[in-house]
């Protein structure tokens, strides 16, 4: 299959996915926001800030012109931070219409509205495209995907046929794509695991052990699933690649920006400085805020998210956050 494809966003993930598609023989149009990034990709075949050491294939063409990048492309892949999804869709909307799929790969929730990103897409895309919204998610660090290390993810969409087209688009010998029918669960799994990755990072930064990490991951998954089910997701989705799978990789890998931000927070560094030094998106920070609000609105108990919220937004000492979790009223594991 040789599709006309555009990737919107030339950060770590957009670049890695562009390289994957180009290596499958597709001509990829890659939109980058910064002009120096466009030039570096086209002239030096590298994207040194986001994916050093990776050679960008000749069949990727970078451009700073968003409308030109997406015009007449069959498949669009969105790889900008969650909070930028609405804005880039608005900007490209005038030239959209005939696409087979618009695939979001960002993992987050919109800060102002609390919406899932597919809901944002449905609001912004022109008529017929609303039904061709899709999502690619799962445990997949860009640094490993671009080095062809075996990776498995899921593709989901409102319509099964669209999910299958996304599966066909990305399937490669080192990149296995399963289809999935639970759009809500897949999106929530990808967004909420970043909160728990921040927390396991904090735990590592405080010098706590593997027991602590296992507890946070397991109880974190329980509260992710509780909120997910309250929002219409299927419970089993949280046991799959987009739930537990992504939780495991993000909570344990040193490639995770969320985990690394958490480690620094646990070591006493302040969040504004951490974000400045990271120079890449740390989605879990804003997702913590949104999930905290959603848990209150929906009456869902999310004690780990609540403590993360206090640490990130109320300058609570992380050690106190852990103590609060340990000293909660005694209870059964499953209620
Ligand atoms: N890096 C990874 O391994 C993976 C990342 N993701 C998700 O993909 C999304 C993008 O992440 P990364 O590429 O890693 O981030 P990044 O920080 O490496 O790159 C973000 C890109 O978006 C651009 N950007 C930033 N603000 C923007 C704005 N307001 N408008 C338009 N463009 C803007 C930046 O210039 C940069 O090119 C995130 O939601 C992330 O959770 C998903 C799977 C894997
Ligand atoms: O979602 C990811 C891997 O699946 C990337 O996680 P980070 O944003 O924490 O790096």
List the helices and strands and how they pair.
Blueprint: E1 5-8, H1 12-23, E2 28-31, H2 35-44, E3 60-63, H3 66-70, E4 75-78, H4 85-92, E5 101-104, H5 117-124, E6 133-137, H6 142-145, E7 151-157, H7 160-170, E8 175-180, H8 183-206, H9 210-230, H10 241-252, H11 257-266, H12 271-278, H13 284-298, H14 303-313, H15 318-326
Parallel strand pairs: 1-2, 1-4, 2-3, 4-5, 5-6, 7-8
Antiparallel strand pairs: 6-7
Helix pairs in contact: 4-5, 8-9, 8-10, 8-11, 8-13, 11-12, 13-14, 14-15
The site of 1,4-dihydronicotinamide adenine dinucleotide has 27 residues, from helix 1 and helix 4.
Description:
This protein folds into two domains: 5-181, 3-Layer(aba) Sandwich (Rossmann fold), CATH 3.40.50.720; 184-326, Orthogonal Bundle (N-(1-d-carboxylethyl)-l-norvaline Dehydrogenase, domain 2), CATH 1.10.1040. The relative contact order is 0.11. The longest helix is centred in the middle third of the chain and has 24 residues, at 183-206. The N and C termini lie far apart (48 Å). It is an alpha/beta fold. It is 50% helix and 11% strand. It contains 15 helices and eight strands. The protein is globular, with a radius of gyration of 19 Å. Residues 107, 139-141, 194, 197, 246, 249-250, 255-258, 283 line the site of 1,3-dihydroxyacetonephosphate. Residues 4-162 form the Glycerol-3-phosphate dehydrogenase NAD-dependent N-terminal domain.
Q: Oligomeric form of this entry? A: single chain
What is the spatial order of strands in the main beta sheet? 3-2-1-4-5-6-7-8
Give the overall shape, derived from the CA principal axes. globular
Ligand kinds: 1,4-dihydronicotinamide adenine dinucleotide, 1,3-dihydroxyacetonephosphate
Supply the number of helical segments: 15
* CATH topology type of the largest domain: Rossmann fold
The CATH architecture term of the largest domain is 3-Layer(aba) Sandwich
Strand content: 5-15%
The radius of gyration over CA amounts to: 19 Å
Q: CATH H-level name of the largest domain... which superfamily?
A: NAD(P)-binding Rossmann-like Domain
Number of strands: 8
């Amino acid at each position: 299959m040789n599709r006309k494809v555009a990737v919107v966003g030339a950060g770590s993930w957009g670049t890695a996915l562009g390289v994957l598609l180009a290596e499958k023989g597709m001509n990829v149009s890659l939109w980058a926001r910064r002009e120096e990034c466009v030039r570096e990709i086209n002239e030096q075949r590298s994207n040194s800030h986001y994916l050093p050491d990776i050679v960008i294939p000749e069949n990727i063409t970078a451009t700073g012109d968003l409308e030109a990048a997406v015009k007449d492309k069959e498949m669009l892949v969105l790889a900008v931070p969650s909070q930028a999804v609405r804005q880039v869709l608005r900007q490209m909307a005038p030239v959209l219409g005939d696409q087979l799929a618009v695939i979001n790969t960002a993992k987050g929730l919109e800060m102002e509205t609390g919406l899932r990103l597919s809901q944002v897409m449905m609001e912004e895309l022109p008529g017929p495209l609303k039904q061709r919204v899709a999502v690619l998610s799962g445990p997949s660090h860009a640094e490993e995907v671009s080095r062809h290390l075996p990776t498995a993810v899921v593709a989901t969409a409102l319509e099964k046929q669209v999910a299958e087209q996304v599966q066909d688009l990305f399937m490669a010998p080192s990149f296995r794509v399963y289809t999935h029918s639970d759009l809500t669960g897949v999106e929530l799994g990808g967004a909420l695991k970043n909160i728990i990755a921040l927390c396991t990072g904090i735990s590592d930064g405080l010098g706590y052990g593997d027991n602590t990490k296992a507890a946070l991951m397991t109880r974190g998954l329980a509260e992710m699933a509780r909120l997910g089910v309250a929002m219409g997701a299927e419970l089993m989705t949280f046991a799959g690649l987009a739930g537990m799978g992504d939780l495991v990789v993000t909570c344990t890998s040193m490639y995770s920006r969320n985990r690394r931000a958490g480690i620094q927070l646990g070591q006493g560094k302040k969040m504004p400085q951490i974000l400045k030094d990271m120079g890449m998106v740390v989605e879990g920070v804003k997702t913590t805020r949104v999930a905290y609000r959603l848990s209150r609105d929906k009456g869902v108990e999310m004690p780990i998210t609540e403590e993360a919220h206090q640490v990130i937004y109320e300058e609570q000492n992380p050690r106190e956050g852990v103590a609060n979790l340990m000293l909660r009223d005694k209870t059964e594991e499953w209620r």
